[in-house]
Amino acid sequence: MEEILEIIDLTEEGLGVGKKEKRVYFVSGDVTVGDVVKVKVTSEKRGVILGEALEILTNSPYRDVPRCPHFGYCGGCSLQNLDYEQQLVLKKTKVYNIMKKIGRIDAPINSVLPNFAFYRYRQKVHFTFGSSQNKLAIGYFDRKNNWFPVTDCLIADKSLVEVAHYVTEILDAFKLKAYFNDAGVLRHLVVRKSSTTGEIQVVITAVKLNFNVKEIAAKILLNPEIQSLTFHENPKKTREVFGKGTAVTFGTRYITEELLGISYRLTPLSFFQINPVQAEKIYRIALDYLDLGKTDMVFDGYSGVGSLTLPAARIAASVVGVEEIRDAVEVAKTNAKLNGIANVNFFAGKVEEKLPWLLKKGYRFNKIILDPPREGVKKEVLEEIIKLNPERIVYVSCNPATQARDLKILAETGYYPVEITPVDMFSQTMHVENVVLLKKK
Ligand SMILES: C[S@@+](CC[C@H](N)C(=O)[O-])C[C@H]1O[C@@H](n2cnc3c(N)ncnc32)[C@H](O)[C@@H]1O
Fold this sequence. Notes:
The longest helix is centred in the N-terminal third of the chain and has 18 residues, at 84-101. This protein has helices spanning 84-101, 158-173, 179-182, 213-220, 276-290, 309-313, 326-338, 351-360, 379-388, 400-412, and strands spanning 2-10, 16-20, 23-28, 36-45, 48-58, 124-132, 135-141, 147-149, 186-193, 200-206, 226-233, 247-251, 255-259, 262-266, 297-301, 318-323, 344-348, 367-370, 392-397, 415-423, 433-440. Strand 9 (186-193) and strand 10 (200-206) form a beta hairpin. 25% of the residues lie in helices and 32% in strands. Helix 1 (84-101) packs parallel to helix 10. It folds into three domains: 2-63, CATH 2.40.50.140; 89-116 and 275-440, Vaccinia Virus protein VP39 (Rossmann fold, 3-Layer(aba) Sandwich), CATH 3.40.50.150; 124-259, CATH 2.40.50.1070. The chain is globular and about 65 Å long. By secondary structure, it is α/β, with parallel strands linked by helices. It starts with a strand and ends with a strand. The protein contains ten helices and 21 strands. The strands form four sheets. Strands 8-7-6-9-10-11-12 form a seven-stranded mixed β-sheet. It has a seven-stranded mixed β-sheet with strand order 17-16-15-18-19-21-20, with helices on both faces. S-adenosylmethionine (SAM) binds next to strand 16 and helix 8.
């Protein structure tokens, strides 16, 4: 069966969405918002209709020329064929719809803050090792979840891709094979760059470190850009990059990044925003929403290496950060010392366990920062926060769907979103970072 459809939206996975007579179609192929497309319906199961674009009958006025050689099948970017201004419009509509549908929230949503470098903005890339033409190669997963070799990644800083190829060639010369599709040991390659110092950090993960890491490291470190190199053993049979296995580091253990005038040491396994320019904007908005003064006692849940904790501590009376990765907590403490910030305390553990523990110990907070991973905040954490009766809550999220779910719980107890600002951290993809201020009515 064939249909003629106008594409009115895009899914996270890059499928075009079309509607006809109250039926919703999900269309694969090089389609974008505004295209009128002839579609071949390929399956219909429980009301989900999938189709393939056969022909674009009218090109969208918002079409742009994709720049990446892997566009169309790469699972990473799905918006490269859409004009950047329209990407921002699409993201604002996405946040609005999610907030309304999942959160039942009607708060004002500001325009999405643009990312002026909407290509080559990533300062961290993560490749999976595989093999191509009988050689070790770096790759990503496509929209059907199949691995493919990557020559370039247009949203990543160019030097990160170059370093990734350089490291892969050395590993290949040592006859190492990919675990993923070649029954070898190598799993992932993570390359991160400091936007302030230009230092590069490389992490190679393997199921077993049963090869001569010392000799390989000596070769890799001949590249003067690479300051920090870690081999990390992760025997877990999942696609997770880092596990609990051992790590061996050569060169320095950290690279240094600077945001809002504060320096951060970034260790191999600790989280840091991949787009420092946009991260700074997010932190500025979060601090502005917190409206900090000299008497404020702040709780920063999911604090990473302290990138919101430390700027908040510069203004507030005290800030407590809780983060589950012990290594990140150690680095956060060092970061506080290095920057001469003494009114902070960092605790290692899960927020859901550490927050009740802190309250039992007598800690009190009147302002709350939440910056959780994609899964959002556990209900019991929200309940503890409500009991604290804070003046303001600032919730930063890279997943508006779980954020809207959590905002609904907070709204039911009287904390309403006062202002919502989406920020474009991940141009060319459907992802959006969202900062929300909540206050009691
Ligand atoms: C989105 S990051 C935010 C980090 C930091 N605020 C920043 O902007 O760099 C989320 C952090 O939460 C940590 N995390 C994940 N689940 C956690 C939990 N249940 N309790 C505490 N920390 C957690 C992760 O390790 C990660 O560092």
